[in-house]
Structure formats: C-alpha cells, structure tokens
C-alpha cells in the first residue's frame, strides 16, 4: 500500500533522485539556505488566508456560545439560591429555629432590600457581544476590506446582521436561566411545602383585586424543616455549577476580552469615567430610550412578583410557582429567536411588537381576578406567563441590538450600557419600594410607562429619519503613557501620533480626505493582525 506524499515537502528530506531534486539543487545538509527557509513550492496564500479567517470566525462563534452558556448557568444559580432562601426565610418556623431571639423577625425584608440593591452591579457590564459581531464582520469581509483599502472603516451598520444573530443566541440561552433556577425547587424544596389548602386558607382575593404581595398568605409554608446537611449539599452543587460556569467563560472565551480594551481607563482619569455616562445623556437618542430602560426593569419584576405571585401563587399555591416560571422561561427563550425577524423586517418592528404583547396582556390582567384555591383556570396562568416571556424577549433583544447599532464606537459602548443598566436597577429598586401598592396601581404604572416608552421610541426613530444629528460628548484623550502589563510596547500605547507632536490633551482631529502619501505612512497607527504579522505586513486599524 503506497503512502501519499505530504502536502508540503519537509526541508532537508531526500528526494526521489537521492541528494538532488529534479532541478539539480543538492538536498540535505548541503542544501542552500534559501531552500531550507524559503516558502513551500505548493504554498497557496489565498487558501491559507481563507482558512485563517474561517478559524477566526469559528472562534467568535465559540466565544458567543461559551459566554451565553456561562451567563445562563451563573444567573440560574443566582436565581435558584435566591428563590430557595426567600421561601425558607418566609417561613416563620424556619426563622425562629435559625435565628432564635436575635431580634431579626423581618430578616426576609432585609434580604429583599439587599437583593434589590445588587443590580447596581450592572454598572460593570461590558457589551462584549457587540464587539464580537464587529470582529465577525471583519473576518467575513476581509477581501472587501483589502479591496477598499486597509485604512478605510467598514460602513456604519454593516455588522448589524451579525449583532442581531448573536443577541438572539445569547438571550435564548439567558432566559433559560429562569428554568434552570427552578430545578432546586422542583427536585428538593417542593417536597417540604404545604399544599394550597393550607397556605391559601386566609387568602380572600387575587389578581387585580389584591393588595401588596400575597396578602393573607400563611406564614408557615414548610411541613417539615429541611435538614442542614441536605441544604448544604444543594447549595454546594449550585456553587459548583457557578464555578464551572466561570471556568467555561475564562477558558473558552477569555481571549475575547483582550481586543475590546481600546482605551486605557486609568489614563483617561476616574473623574472623566464618572462624568461620561451622565454627559452622554445629551444625546437625544439616549433620552428617548430612557423610558424603555425603566420599563425593562419594571416588566421583569412584574413577571416574577405580579404574574407569578399576585396571580399565580395567590390562586394555585406555592407548589406551582416553579412551573409558572418555567413557562415564562421557555416562552422567553423561544421568542428570543423571533428577534431574527429583524433581518428582514424594519428595525422598530420587534421592539414595538414586544410592547404590543405586553400592552394586550396588561389590559387583560387589569380586569382579571382569579379565585383562590381553584385550579380550573391554571392553564390561563401558564399561557399568560409564556406570553409575557415572549414580550420580555422581544424587549431585551430589541433594546440591546438597537444600542449596538446606534453606538458602534467601542469607547462609548461601556458608558451607554452603563446608563441602560443603571436605569434598570433604579426601576427594580422602585418596584421593591412600591411592593405594598394595590395590584391595580401597579398595572396602571406599568401601562403608563409602557405607552410612554413606545411613544418616545417612535419619536426617536422619526428624528433619525429626518436626519437630526445627535450630540455626543468627546471622549478624553489619554493624559499619559501607561507602562502596564498590557502596554509594554511603544506601539500599544494609547497616545496617537498627533498627541506626540502637540503634547498631551490634544483633541483628536479628523484625518484628511484622500489616500495616504505613501506605503510607509499608511502603516502608521495600524495594528497588524496575527496573520499579517506572520506575512510581515500591517493590518487594518481597529476602529
């Protein structure tokens, strides 16, 4: 059986003619240096370039899937622990046994206060998916970029289709975290709960006629207290899953975070970092989207406290809470893929469609009061939870995609998403403060906020069609060079050529139109990609 010859002949190997090849050039130790270190005779530069960028695209897809799965597991563990601890601390017998006479009868209220403040940690959010979409567009259209010139920036909005696909993938995974969070409830805590005849014995009204959260709900919901050893095992398993999710993100998509650090925040100054999110509010696009940011926080909390508790648990019992949230999770996860319709439909359609679904459901819930301890209407609750998840998915996917399209500049995305999640955190905390309001008042606030958000967003789109230019603050230039572990070389400094000539603090000016004067000047300020480093050339500038 004959063996196939290698694709690339090994340097120094003896050819079929002994020590000389077909051209008479000696082989082996006596071969010329050019023959040993030169290019392979069968080397296809175009094919190697195509394979290189295909590997880069697959790497981006791997990062998206790893980040999505890691986010799903991490948030699922957080929600699962939160839900289990809230139910345990709600039971007055559990609190008395655990805390005794420590003077903490309202430990559940104190926990809720801390839980609703924690979303402020969203200020640290980094919109990695947007930059993955921009890199994927770059790797997919590398030939067009070479033809247009290495210094020319891709057209604005060219990465939008990839961004929309990545957001749909991420949120389809992320919304499954609500279903994953119910596993401890279904397989562990449900075995210790009383049935609805005990927990709902004093409940008189539900739904739109209710006041506060579960008014009249029994203070004892546990038939027997879980053993401490069993609780430790369940919590240890959840923490192990969170640890594996962290390893998944760090191991598979850790490299995705390196090219995203386009500015050195330390050299910009912490004062500017604190001011820039507020200065971006000058942009009318962001001001018109603030009502949607607030509503985005309202609707998620209403799904968990209004529909799941005020309508669901209040009428069909605590033992069915997990299944209601699973219905919400599956509806939201499936509907996240509906965001792909934005590839063919006008941009406002997904966001307005999600608002329309919630508007219809809010009207229905405003006039519906389920009867406590009656299970005949339970299917209506599951349908309502699933449809609310559909609206939530279209809301989250549409908002994130819209922000990624409107703000393509990498140095602005952190500040824009900081504002987005800060308003969400404020809305979540406001829901906690108004938890004692009647259900009709909550629905009215939700309805007014939704209408205001939809009208404000459509007004923004109208201004964009008229060509109204937004006002954006200038990102300060770095004040000095940083010799940190990421800035060891002169080429990696944040200081531009103009700064070196005019001094620190010089404002960035637009480059003159027309081609560069020569190939040497065209290479200034350009960062070669790994493939071009191997070829000895320069790469396109990171915009």
UniProtKB/TrEMBL annotation:
Organism, scientific name: Cercocebus atys (Sooty mangabey)
Protein family according to the UniProt entry: Belongs to the unc-93 family.
Places the protein is found: Cytoplasmic vesicle, Phagosome; Endoplasmic reticulum membrane; Endosome; Lysosome
Residue numbers spanned by region Disordered: 1-30, 468-543
Transmembrane segments: 60-81, 111-130, 162-189, 231-257, 289-309, 321-344, 351-371, 415-435, 441-458
Alphabetically ordered keywords of this record: Adaptive immunity, Antiviral defense, Cytoplasmic vesicle, Endoplasmic reticulum, Endosome, Glycoprotein, Immunity, Innate immunity, Lysosome, Membrane, Phosphoprotein, Transmembrane, Transmembrane helix
Protein name (database record): Protein unc-93 homolog B1
Main location: cytoplasm
Membrane topology (UniProt): Multi-pass membrane protein
An annotated GO BP: adaptive immune response
GO terms for cellular component: endoplasmic reticulum membrane; endosome; lysosome; phagocytic vesicle
Function description: Plays an important role in innate and adaptive immunity by regulating nucleotide-sensing Toll-like receptor (TLR) signaling. Required for the transport of a subset of TLRs (including TLR3, TLR7 and TLR9) from the endoplasmic reticulum to endolysosomes where they can engage pathogen nucleotides and activate signaling cascades. May play a role in autoreactive B-cells removal.
Low complexity biased stretches: 519-528
Any GO MF annotation of the entry: Toll-like receptor binding
């Amino acid at each position: 059986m004959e063996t196939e010859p290698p694709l690339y002949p090994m340097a120094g190997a003896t050819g079929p003619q002994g020590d000389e090849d077909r051209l008479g050039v000696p082989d082996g130790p006596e071969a010329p240096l050019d023959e040993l270190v030169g290019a392979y005779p069968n080397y296809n530069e175009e094919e190697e370039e195509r394979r290189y960028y295909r590997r880069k695209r697959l790497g981006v897809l791997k990062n998206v899937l790893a980040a999505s799965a890691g986010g799903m597991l991490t948030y699922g563990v957080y929600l699962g622990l939160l839900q289990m601890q809230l139910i345990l601390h709600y039971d007055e017998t559990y609190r008395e046994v655990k805390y005794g006479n420590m003077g903490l009868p309202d430990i559940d209220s104190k926990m809720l206060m801390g839980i609703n403040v924690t979303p402020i940690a969203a200020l640290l959010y980094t919109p990695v998916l947007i930059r993955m979409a921009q890199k994927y567009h770059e790797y997919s259209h590398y030939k067009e970029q070479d033809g247009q010139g290495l210094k020319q920036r891709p057209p604005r909005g060219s990465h939008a289709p990839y961004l929309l696909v990545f957001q749909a993938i991420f949120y389809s995974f992320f919304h499954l975290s609500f279903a994953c969070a119910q596993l401890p409830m279904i397989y562990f805590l449900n075995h210790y709960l009383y049935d609805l005849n005990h927990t709902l014995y004093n409940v008189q009204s539900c739904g739109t006629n209710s006041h506060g959260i579960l008014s009249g709900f029994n203070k004892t919901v546990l038939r027997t207290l879980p053993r401490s050893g069993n609780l430790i095992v369940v919590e240890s398993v959840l923490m192990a899953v969170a640890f594996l999710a962290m390893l998944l993100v760090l191991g598979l998509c850790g490299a995705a975070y390196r090219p995203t650090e386009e500015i050195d925040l330390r050299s910009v100054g912490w004062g500017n970092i604190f001011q820039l999110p507020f200065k971006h509010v000058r942009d009318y696009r962001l001001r018109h989207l603030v009502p949607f940011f607030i509503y985005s926080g309202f609707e998620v909390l209403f799904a968990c406290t209004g529909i799941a508790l005020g309508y669901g648990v209040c009428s069909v019992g605590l033992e069915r809470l997990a299944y209601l949230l699973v219905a919400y999770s599956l509806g939201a996860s499936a509907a996240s893929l509906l965001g792909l319709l934005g590839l063919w439909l006008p941009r406002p359609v997904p966001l307005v469609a999600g608002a329309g679904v919630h508007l219809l459901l809010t009207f229905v819930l405003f006039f519906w009061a389920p009867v406590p301890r009656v299970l005949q209407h339970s299917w209506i609750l599951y349908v309502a939870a699933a449809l609310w998840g559909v609206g939530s998915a279209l809301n989250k996917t549409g908002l994130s995609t819209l922000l990624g399209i409107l703000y393509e500049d990498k140095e602005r995305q952190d500040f824009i998403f900081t504002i987005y999640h800060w308003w969400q955190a404020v809305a979540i905390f406001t829901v906690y403060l108004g938890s004692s309001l009647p259900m009709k008042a909550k629905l009215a606030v939700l309805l007014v906020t939704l209408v205001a958000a939809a009208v404000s967003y459509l007004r923004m789109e109208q201004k964009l069609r008229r060509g109204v230019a937004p006002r954006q603050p200038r990102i300060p230039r770095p004040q000095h060079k940083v010799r940190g572990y990421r800035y060891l070389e002169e080429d990696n400094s944040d200081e531009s050529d103009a700064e070196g000539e005019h001094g620190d603090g010089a404002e960035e000016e637009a480059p003159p139109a027309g081609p560069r004067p020569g190939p040497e000047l065209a290479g200034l300020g350009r960062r070669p990609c790994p493939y071009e480093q191997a070829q000895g050339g320069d790469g396109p500038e990171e915009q």
